[in-house]
Amino acid sequence: MRLRLTASNVAAITPPAPVRLDALELRLVRLPLLEPFEVSFGRMESRLLFLLRLEAGDHFGWGECVAGEAPLYSYETVGTARQVIRDHLAPAILGKEIKGLADLASRFAAFRGHPMAKAGIELAFVDLVARLRGEPIARTIGGVRERVEVGVSLGIEPTLDALDERVRRFLGLGYRRIKLKIKPGADVSVVGGIRERHPRILLSVDANAAYTLADAGLLRQLDAYDLLMIEQPLAHDDLVDHASLQRTLTTAICLDESITSHDRARQALDTGACRIINMKIGRVGGYSEALRIHDLCVERGVPLWCGGMFESGIGRAHNLALASLPGFTLPGDISGSSRYFERDVIVPPVEVAEDGSVAVPTSPGLGFEVDVAFLERRTESVERLRP
Ligand code: OSB
Ligand code: MG
To answer: Fewer CB within 10 A of the end CB, N or C, for the chain?
Structure first.
């Protein structure tokens, strides 16, 4: 497939006519995880999902806010995001005529931080716009791929055998890249053990900010294992130390937590803090910023891939649309629904084909039905905000 490498145009993401936003529903839904997921900062056994439904007359759009229950991955939580949406973001848009995504984003611009809260609303708005235009989100934002390649992110396990069982299982399902979570005490020997058993697979690691520059020697040992990348080895808000570390490593550093905006991405690339970027719409504040970072990576020839936050199918559908943009050149953390939950909130569930790819939906909006009856049964709280 030939990819069109044109700049995405946030200004072109508009409904057929300005749209008056009537209501925003905030819903918290808890789903148990099929398997617990452990990373350097903690362990998750269930996911409290924060789903948003934006309404305009009879029309609607679904979004998801990816904040966690505790401020571990970032400072935002489900609680802070709800408060910021309820008290500040929703009042800035409800009852207003919105011309498009750029207009929506401009109404949030004065509020500092809280990118996941902003992104939750942007997602719902872009789904609404795509439905009003009668096209899939991927087309609305300039996607060009019919299928996207995916990998799997595997948590820390108590033994190498337990981890290897999962590596084999997901390779058997077709996943194109295996990412191992690491932390001090579960790093070089684990990575070495998996690499020895799987000499040729596409393998990467993610430290979720668990190390400091004092660990540079240890991190350099990872150079021996032909990794695709080392994701976020140092502090969540750091660029300077990552640049120092990158100069001493042959393996590419990929930044996740540190890339919170287009400016941070530009600064990271200008200073050599990373050679690869992980994109999460929630972490950067929504589609408007994500598309600008995408264009920056295309311009600079920097490999980009779509990260994941253990989203429900709603967030995952948005990730699929995003990953269909031309600049997403490495497999994303967009696993099938069955990697996370017994039952997803969308129908049909996301399925990974034997070749490790997922189809980008082609019907309007998300391209999946939201299973509202199932959502209702799993809902912990729901509130409706009006102008
Ligand atoms: O660092 O990429 C991360 C999940 C929660 C928080 C942070 C991260 C992750 C993952 C899982 O790696 C990716 C997925 O959704 O499959
Ligand atoms: Mg990460």
So the answer is: N
Neighbouring CB atoms inside 10 A of 184's CB total 12
Report DSSP state, residue 77: B
Question: Which pLDDT belongs to residue 7?
Answer: 60
| Torsion angle defined by CA atoms of residues 311, 139, 283 and 170, in that order, rounded to the nearest 10 degrees | 40
SS3 label, residue 115 = helix
Which ligand 1 atom minimizes the distance to the CA of 152? 16
Q: How far apart are CA 66 and CA 280, in angstroms?
A: 9
Our answer to whether residue 179 is catalytic in this structure is: no
- Residue 5 or 286, more confident: 286
Determine the Cα–Cα distance for residues 13 and 122; give it in Å rounded to an integer. 11
Cβ neighbors of 127 (< 8 A, separation 6 or more) are 54, 61, 62, 63, 137, 318, 365, 366
Q: For the whole model, what pTM was predicted?
A: 0.96
Ligand 1 mutation target, pool 76, 259, 320, 333, most atoms within 8 A of CB: 333
Distance (Å, whole) CA 323 – CA 329: 9
The beta-carbon contacts of 374-382 under 8 Å, at least 24 apart in sequence, are 374/343, 374/345, 375/27, 375/29, 375/51, 375/345, 378/29, 378/30, 378/31, 379/27, 379/28, 379/29, 380/28, 380/29, 380/30, 380/48, 381/27, 381/28, 382/25, 382/26, 382/27, 382/28
Strand locations in 159-207, DSSP E? Answer: 177-181, 202-206
Residues 233/219, Cβ–Cβ less than 8 Å: yes
Contact between 346 and 369 (Cβ < 8 Å): yes
Quote the percentage of the chain above a pLDDT of 70. 98
In the residue annotation, 181 being an active-site residue is answered as yes
